[in-house]
Design brief:
It comes from Williamsia serinedens. InterPro entries: 4FE4S_WBL (IPR034768). This is Transcription factor WhiB. 51% of the residues lie in helices and 4% in strands. With 143 residues, it is mainly alpha-helical. The chain folds into 2 domains: 91 residues, no CATH class; 45 residues. Helix 3 packs across helix 4. The termini are far apart. The model has no long low-confidence stretch (mean pLDDT 81).
């Protein structure tokens, strides 16, 4: 039985678009499905959490493309976890866990993914930059 939230998902009735096993992650069909999901799905947060539990092999889930023939699955799961605001540790230690927001690594991850860094990450980056400027000023004053 499907969860109640699934009946509200943007992908309902569009299996050929969202579950196309033979589509490459960069294909136009896949990009269209990702755009529809990211921009119109009212239950994307529930879908993100569901996707992290299910770890699908192929198709478009929570606005990310999955393919059994391409090495995109772990990266997609990390991006979904980041957007869902949860920690994600891959099973069997295959890839590194997502760093918690409020760290340099998380700030860099936001920037790498072309996302606006969250408030915690921006504040951490401001503190780090301020400390770096203070260190430089102290070094210049000492020399």
């Amino acid at each position: 039985m499907k969860d109640a939230w699934m009946q509200q998902a943007a992908c309902i009735g569009h299996d050929q678009l969202f579950l196309a096993e033979d589509e490459r992650p960069g294909s136009r069909l896949t990009r269209d499905a990702m755009t529809k999901c990211r921009n119109t799905c009212p239950v994307i947060q529930e879908c993100r959490l569901y996707t992290l539990k299910q770890r699908p092999e192929c198709g478009v889930w929570a606005g990310e493309a999955f393919s059994p023939t391409h090495n995109v699955r772990a990266a997609a799961l990390r991006r979904i976890a980041d957007k869902a605001g949860v920690d994600y540790t891959p099973p069997q230690g295959g890839t590194r866990a997502v760093k918690e927001c409020g760290t340099k690594a998380a700030y860099d991850r936001h920037r790498y993914n072309n996302e606006e860094p969250c408030l915690r990450c921006r504040e951490a980056e401001r503190r780090r930059a301020s400390e770096r400027r203070a260190r430089k000023a102290a070094e210049q004053a000492a020399s």
